[in-house]
Write a structure and sequence with these properties.
448 residues; alpha/beta; 5-stranded mixed beta barrel; 33% helix; binds flavin-adenine dinucleotide; NAD; redox-active center; Pyr_nucl-diS_OxRdtase_dimer; disulfide bond
Length: 448
Amino acid sequence: FATGEEQDLVIIGGGPGGYVAAIKAGQMGLKVACVEGRGSLGGTCLNVGCIPSKALLNSSHAYAEAKDHMKAMGVTFTGLSYDWGTMQKGKDETVSGLTKGIEGLFKKNKVEYVKGWGTLKGPNTVEVALADGSSRSLSAKNIMIATGSEVTPLPGVPVDEERIVTSTGALKLKEVPGTMVVIGGGYIGLEMGSVYQRLGSKVTVVEFMDNIVPTMDGEIRRQFQRSLQKQGMTFKLGTKVNSARREGDKVLLEVEPAKGGAKETIEVDVVLVSAGRRPFTEGLGLDAVGIPTDKRGRIEVDDHFRTKVPSIYAIGDVIPGPMLAHKAEEDGVAAVEIICGKAGHVNYNTVPSIVYTHPEVASVGLTEEEAKAKGLNVKLIADAKTDKLLGAWIMGPNAGELIPECVLAMEYGACTEDIARSCHGHPTLSEAIKEAALATAFGKPIHM
Ligand code: FAD
């Protein structure tokens, strides 16, 4: 081993949780190293998640706008087409630009980037299998696990990343398929399904539950599904997938009603398996150092991101909480602050989530159903007695850019009357939030 001097902090994993924590640690004056095995920084999010999916959503949306929506504005095109190769190239360039950008930020903030796979060898030791075949032992006062998540496999559906793909394969299909089945009606499946549906694929979403995106507010979900159906997406809800097998260039997918009934075989060009993600801790050596995981494989931590081993912290997708990049980032920053003796904290009740389909759906806080189940009297979604904002659901263009106003309001315990009385610029989409707040606080909006 080449043993270096002791680090204040060694972070295992260079995703949005790990790399942001590393930069924050550098900014706070810690001697920090970040171990990453995949060969580039940015984790799932930048390499095979948020960023490449949004790049394809963006370019396919531009095509769909030109094809279907701009006529009403008096803009027409003749001979409109798209070039899948250029869309893919654009996506790849965005990914490589951003991941290299993080390397630059590491240098700027004096973070050491250790390229290899890390294993815990003790409460203060990480051994790294380096990319060149050698290994290196890092000793650290504190260790942070930020190893993220991976796709949950589906029994009977063997992934080959060509015809039976995960989201990773779906981001780089060689061509736009004629037909596609998305297994799982969560946000990742709906986003990737939207990309291909816009480009001409006939997309069917097969979902075990009776609803898509089960965490969504019921009223919003029904409107959202109707809108996707209008665009041409088909839904087979309450349907169980038994198996998938390849036959030449086709996939034969066997499904049956979730409650039991006649089996059906669907022939399709591409199947996307998108039935959830699970924490990734393979080869990490958790058992050896005595760090337990829960039933879902998530590392157990206390309110300060500390595992059972006091010098080892864990953050991001690998611990409980929403599996989202911005949540991982907030975890990472808070954990570094705690390590530095400051009061780091993340309020999981105000983590927003956004589905980047068209229309976008952005939300924060409780659904109406959840609020009612808590015995609160609610209206879109504030407590009827105190008027305190409990949740917000927005469906429409740029919903993701509008939701932070509601996040901020919730963080500061604002009432809907506070929002209604705040002056919003005109004409802006944000006025819709003011109108909704007027409706909630005074029973009547001005413009509806
Ligand atoms: P990860 O990003 O998974 O990073 C963990 C890193 O650790 C990986 O790079 C891995 O190689 C490395 N690693 C693991 N074990 C070791 C080891 N032993 N040694 C060294 N390195 C190791 N979230 C959003 O907020 N918005 C979105 O729009 C969004 N879109 C998504 C779209 C898709 C298709 C997918 C798959 C995910 C999307 N997500 C989105 C989720 C988001 O990507 C994750 O929540 C986020 O990446 C979690 O960050 P993390 O740092 O915890 O883990």
